Amino acid sequence: MSFAECKDQQQVVKLLQRSLERGRLGHAYLFTGNSLSVLEAMAQTLAKTLNCLQPKRAPNGIALDCCDSCSACHRIANFGHPDVQWVRPESKSRAITIDQVRDLMQTIHLKPMEAAYKVGIIVAADRMNVQSANAFLKTLEEPPPKSVLILLSSEPGRLLETIYSRCLVLSFAGGSGPALLSEQVAWLKQFSEMATQENQTLLGRYRLLGLLLSRLAQLKERIEKDLTQRSPLERYADAETSLREKWEAELAAAVEAEYRRQRSDVLVALQWWLRDVWLCTQRLGADQICFQPLAPTTQGVAGRLSTEAATENLRVIEKTHRLLETNVQEALVLEVGLLKLSL
Ligand SMILES: [Zn+2]
């Protein structure tokens, strides 16, 4: 497959090709998306493009796409190219072991046998354990010249922050984004309008935080009400104390789990909106964005931001989302996250 054939991924492909054309190939990428097989195909196409013998070139001579038919392309497609190495979780433990990582790092540090670039591709990079990840970090910090590492993950939230922050993240989520209820879209519209008007003041930022917290409080209240109604506690008011205590504990756990799920949906919606803002800073055209009804406010915010600031926003919101999963201090995590956003 060549980039030209990846019809569903054209917006990300264009970003990638633009960075290639400007000579800004990163030394480490993190490709994220729902489907690992899509991510594998994209990583393979990038490896081909870097090593193709007769690539399609930009006017400045830099390869932008592979031919998909030369011997290098063929061998990369068949996993038989000596300079393109793949690492996958071991089938037994479903983990990427430290030996696998060491092996890859050794290969990456050798000069390319025949190709222009050494490419290391780590499938399901979130399966690296702490030891493997630490072994990997050294190379990530001081990559050998003419090498590119491509990490693939459908669960980037599981990656160590130290690894995540050293990679250029490209999201191949593709398609139309999350399926959102109209109520969520209405809330997001309110949020984006307030973000457009807030004029980067601290007060404006706290108003945004207030809007987010009241949305979460509203969700929690509704979940508590719904689940309490369905709990046997209501129906069997005179049950034994021990049984009631058990039901109460079950109810509390169910409320917490459902709340976390819905809170995650809110964060995902915010992530997609910030991704739209980021896309608008790339001047790729409004037809690429996920929330069309929000386009005016999205472009309003994007007009004030550099692409770098919009990229940083994506990192901030992803990090906030991940911290929430592990941290009980919800309000603090959200406050720190929102204050860090550039809007
Ligand atoms: Zn080729």
Could you give the topology of this structure?
Blueprint: H1 10-21, E1 28-32, H2 36-51, E2 56-57, E3 63-65, H3 71-77, E4 84-87, H4 98-109, E5 118-122, H5 130-141, E6 147-153, H6 161-164, E7 168-171, H7 182-197, H8 202-230, H9 232-235, H10 241-281, H11 295-302, H12 307-326, H13 330-340
Parallel strand pairs: 1-6, 1-7, 4-5, 5-6
Antiparallel strand pairs: 2-3
Helix pairs in contact: 2-3, 4-5, 7-8, 7-10, 7-11, 8-10, 8-13, 10-11, 10-12, 12-13
In angstroms, what is the radius of gyration?
Answer: 23 Å
Q: Summarize the amount of helix as a percent range.
A: 55-70%
Bound molecules: zinc ion
Number of helices: 13
> How are the strands ordered across the major sheet?
4-5-6-1-7
Largest sheet: 5 strands, parallel
User: How far is the first residue's CA from the last residue's CA?
Assistant: 38 Å
Order of helices and strands: HEHEEHEHEHEHEHHHHHHH
- The share of residues in extended strands comes to 5-15%
What's the pLDDT, averaged over the residues? 86
Low-pLDDT stretches are: none
What is the number of beta strands? 7
Structural class: alpha/beta
Q: Name the overall outline.
A: globular
